[in-house]
Amino acid sequence: MPLLRALGAAVLLCTSMAALAAPATYSEGTNYVTLAPTQATTVPKGKVEVLEVFSYACPACNGFQPTMERLKKALPPNAQVAYLPAAFIPAEDWPMFQRAYFAAQLLGVADRTHQAMFDAVWKDGALATTDYGTHRLKDPLPTIEDAARWYAAHAGVKPDEFLAAARSFSVDIKMKAADAQIQSMQVPGTPCLIVNGRYRVINESVVGGDQLIELVKFLVAKAAAAP
Question: What is the pTM assigned to this prediction?
Fold first, then answer.
C-alpha cells in the first residue's frame, strides 16, 4: 500500500507539472478582439508589430511603463514595439502631447526621450498637467512651446526647429491619421496594445503584468503564423 500511494503521488505530481508546463490558451472575445479591417503597421517587413496606444498625460500609461519595458525585453526577435499617441482628453492636454510626440518622432528623438517624457509629466514636474499638491489640473496647462524647451534641454533639438516640426503639415497629417486609426481600432482607453494591426488585447482579461506579457507573446505567435 505505501508503494501504491507513492506511485499515485508521483503520477499526480507529474500530471501537475505537465499542466504547469503547458502553454496558456487564450480565446477571442475574452482575451483579445480580432480587428476588421486589419490595420497597417509601421515596422519593417517580416516583423510583428506590438503597438501601444498611449499618452504622456495618461496616469495609467505612466504606471504601465515598467510592464511595457519588461514586455519589450520578453518579445521574440521577430516582434517590434511601436507607439501611437492618443488625443482622447483635450482638457488634460493630450492633443499637445500627441503633437509633441510626432514632432519628436519626425526629428528622430522620440525613442530616446520616451521614458524621460513620462518623468517630466509625472515625476519631476517639468511638464506636469496636475498640481502635485492640490491634485487639480494646472492653469495654464503645458504648451507646445514648453515641450520645445524641454526637448531642447533633453534632446539637443533647437526650440525653433522643434516648433517648426510640431506645426508642420506632416505632423498635422499624422495626428489626423492617428485619431482615425484609434477610432477604427475601437480603442476603449489607454494603455492599449494592438498586435500586428490585427489583435487588440483586452486588458481586463488578465491579472498582472506576467499574464499580459504571456498573452501578447501568444498573439505575436498567432500573428506570425497567420497568412
Answer: 0.89
Residue linked to cell 519595458: 69
Cell (9 digits) for 116: 524621460
Note the pLDDT tens digit of each residue in 106-157: 999 999 999 999 999 999 999 999 998 899 999 999 999 999 999 999 999 9
Enclosing domain of residue 118: 27-225
Dist. CA 41–CA 195, nearest whole Å: 9
Asked, for residue 42, whether it belongs to a domain, the answer is yes
Q: What is the CATH number of the domain that holds 203?
A: 3.40.30.10
Q: Does some domain include residue 110? A: yes
Q: How many domains does the chain have?
A: 1
Burial code (b: 16+ CB inside 10 Å, e: under 16) for 161-184 equals ebbebbeeeebeebbeebeebbee
